[in-house]
Amino acid sequence: NMDSTLHYIHNDSDLSTNSSFSPEEERKSKVQDVVPQALLDQYLSMTDPSRAQTVDTEIAKHCAYSLPGVALTLGRQNWHCLKDTYETLASDMQWKVRRTLAFSIHELAVILGDQLTAGDLVPVFNGFLKDLDEVRIGVLKHLHDFLKLLHVDKRREYLYQLQEFLVTDNSRNWRFRAELAEQLILLLDLYSARDIYDYLRPIAFSLCADKVSSVRWISYKLVSEMVKKLHMASTSTFVVDLMNELVEKFCRCRKWSGRQTFVFICQTISEDDCLPMDQFA
Fold it and tell me: Region Disordered: which residues (predicted)?
């Protein structure tokens, strides 16, 4: 009976129906044979609100910090033991708890595999994307690491949301935009030439005009890598269109800073051998 209960819980697509289980069935769903059950029960009880009030206000954060290690120890076959605890932590009122999970969600995705990631982690990931900047930076720093684990179709859905990373709670938070530029360089390998041109190019151009020089310098590298990627693609019209836009937007800019940006982008393209010299000329 226990095996059939576990099998049902593990394969049920709508796990929200778990609340209809009896307390006995609920307890069985947390049973495993990797570590002493009492030890796991003690760990799972860390999310009990009464413990935070009487034992340690930081206990939920410690629980979140340890969760990937516990998941690795138990194995993906026992994820059902941790799923409810993970969801409880992901909706914790303390942003420090959510931030801790945001920084490790890519590690957990590797442990769980693509099927469990798509079903159980992607909704949490989507919630973190709309959270406070202190939480969003966690998913942003490992955006490439997480997206590369998703199926191609699922990965493309996030192209529409990348633009949102340009908006932060505090406009002076320039490190957020610098991290975005760094991640976009890595993301170029995950998307097609058309996706790069349609979705990543406008963000890159916006970052090239940023008020903070550190953000702009990383963005020049981003644009040069974009030129290289589009040049290597079979459809050569994208790279020509991109270069024409660089000339129009920056070379012919009325502001000296825009024209200076064009020079710096040319320098980076030249230094990194992103184009054959005749095409560069």
Answer: 11-30
